[in-house]
């Protein structure tokens, strides 16, 4: 608990700069989520400044939600530079499984650079494991029986943290497996709540070298904030507003509502 | 009435995947509007995955609000593939009339692929008919005397459904002409309410082969939701929140407030 | 006071078309801010329509928040065309100082086209003056001792208006220097409030030839709207909603709360 508290405290104190190369749907809400937690966002797509931006950043988030060859090239340069500088890289393989193009991008990224945290929904993680799940939109919330094993295996394979979101969020370093139970159905009904989690995980990894803890903390922050928001309103428009209220007022004490276990 | 009710029910039950190639201003709110109604959105710009994404989609929306040659190329590939797969294509010619570039794009799209539903504001529809209306921004709400005739003629010419939005929304298949009177002035004061209508029309066409009915239902859903939102608050910021509340709770019963007639 | 009142009244009456070539993070909120004040927005990135769009626009805003070579090329064409047509050009050098790429873009723009209003946060303005301030994210709010002098010098050098935002917004034409004290800390915690100010300054310059007055009025509109919003809620999510409520109901009377002085 204390370790999670330290993460939110340090994000607010150190205000890590998170360099986001993310999809066009969530640029605004991802930047706002980071600001709400006290982090500093920068969003960019240009390969020409990838090396310079890594120099001033505490973490990198690459999210392939609206992929184009140019953007993927920027991601690879930024991630390789981050690897050399020992800056954490979070990868969100949005929509992998939906097209051969996305499958190839995900494989290219995973083979060419070192990813520290892979965060996807359960069907995306399953797809990365070679399990062919038919993706139905990028907010897919398919239940996958053996997702804990798949998550653990993928983490072992890539020597990184893997997070598979769903009703239960599974987080593993290839050895330990956490199951996080906080959250609310409404989070699946607004676009980009998963993408926001990726950016928050990057902020957390920017202040905490234990990326497993950083990722679990991020799942808890998003899940608990979603619960707080849903407790304030049962309407979807208000929920979005309340979710940002909850993120911006998230304090260490909120972790007392954390629901998680080590499997 | 019952036919419109069936459309909203089936969107919520079947959760059609709507593939959106849309402008950069509305990606987030269009995805959220589709999720609020129970549909599944995917947003993409890459030609490399256009064919694959059509395979898993129930409908395609192409919106030229922020056009670039690359994006237009993707639209043409996606729409041609959709045509071959008998998947409905909705085209929103945002800002046609504002530049020669947009005029040429609109003509290229209309000549190279089969569009099932054209949705624009009245001045955009008039421009497609060769009537030179000076566009004043993309939220233009110019009143055009003979818009019903223009809409009908354009529908006849392109063998498709045409929807011209305005204080009264006109929808025609070239034969029948509907006039839909629901709506609220505030819908013209938030960016993208028209773009959202295009995405919703795609979702509706994804579950209903009668595209005339699907388009009228979409106008009614947006118009009635706007009225509900305006009844909750007379402030523009709150209106946006209430509009998403209304979309997310839209039920068949809401159609009892539908105001439309066949001209 | 009366001169500021006239600006908001004329924006609402004339509804100037503001052509925005802006970053992907703020497209939606910038368009909505302009609509809330009664202006008409058009957002575009394509060089193919830059000349045509200037013909119908009252002002141009170029914002390099998410720069790519293609977009910068469009900005240069649009700005040069605007110069020839005597249409005001507002430049927001977002993130200058964060990368060599952004530094070069800013210098290219300032050397190749005539800018009428430069608006940045204090560290961006200092960077343009050759003072090396380490940028920490694009919402940087670093306090810079001699910002009033730097702002005045930059304005003199480029024969334009310069606005450096911060706790106090400094605006100068190279001769007179205004210090505007309205605003609220929350404006620095939502992404894009500075970008919105740039778009509003363009709208104001589109109806008022005195660009110094237009820029001061814009700072006051954003600052006072921020104060109104913060007085309605002390939560960040609600603040965003209330900020749009405040912009959409901003009236000449609101300037009675203006806090500014000529240094």
UniProtKB/TrEMBL annotation, chains A, B, C:
It is an enzyme of class 2 (transferase). It holds the Pfam family HK. Its cofactor is Mg(2+). It catalyses: 5-(2-hydroxyethyl)-4-methylthiazole + ATP = 4-methyl-5-(2-phosphooxyethyl)-thiazole + ADP + H(+). It comes from the Bacteria. The keyword Nucleotide-binding applies. InterPro entries: Hyethyz_kinase, Ribokinase-like. One of its GO terms (molecular function) is magnesium ion binding. Pathway: Cofactor biosynthesis; thiamine diphosphate biosynthesis; 4-methyl-5-(2-phosphoethyl)-thiazole from 5-(2-hydroxyethyl)-4-methylthiazole: step 1/1. Substrate binds at residues 43, 192. Keywords: ATP-binding, Kinase, Magnesium, Metal-binding, Nucleotide-binding, Thiamine biosynthesis, Transferase. Gene3D superfamilies: 3.40.1190.20. Catalyzes the phosphorylation of the hydroxyl group of 4-methyl-5-beta-hydroxyethylthiazole (THZ). NCBIfam families: PRK09355.1, thiM. This is Hydroxyethylthiazole kinase.
């Amino acid at each position: 608990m204390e370790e999670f508290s330290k993460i939110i405290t340090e994000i607010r104190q150190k205000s890590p700069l998170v360099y986001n190369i993310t999809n066009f749907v969530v640029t605004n809400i991802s930047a706002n989520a980071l600001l709400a937690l006290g982090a500093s966002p920068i969003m960019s797509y240009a390969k020409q400044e990838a090396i310079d931006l890594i120099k001033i950043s505490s973490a990198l988030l690459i999210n392939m939600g609206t992929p184009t060859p140019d953007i993927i090239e920027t991601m690879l340069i930024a991630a390789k530079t981050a690897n050399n500088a020992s800056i954490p890289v979070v990868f969100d393989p949005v929509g992998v499984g939906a097209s051969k193009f996305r499958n190839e991008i995900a494989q290219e990224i995973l083979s060419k650079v070192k990813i520290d945290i892979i965060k996807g929904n359960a069907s995306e993680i399953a797809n990365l494991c070679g399990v062919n799940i038919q993706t139905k939109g990028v907010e897919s919330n398919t239940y996958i029986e053996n997702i804990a094993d798949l998550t653990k295996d993928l983490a072992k394979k890539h020597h990184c943290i893997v997070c598979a979101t769903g009703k239960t969020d599974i987080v593993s370093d290839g050895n330990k497996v956490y199951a996080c139970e906080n959250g609310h159905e409404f989070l699946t009904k607004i676009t980009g709540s998963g993408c926001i989690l990726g950016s928050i995980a990057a902020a957390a990894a920017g202040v905490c070298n234990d990326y497993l803890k950083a990722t679990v903390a991020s799942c808890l922050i998003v899940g608990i904030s979603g619960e707080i928001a849903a407790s304030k309103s049962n309407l979807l428009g208000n929920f979005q507003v309340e979710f940002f209220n909850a993120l911006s007022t998230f304090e260490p004490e909120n972790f007392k509502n954390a629901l998680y276990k080590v499997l």
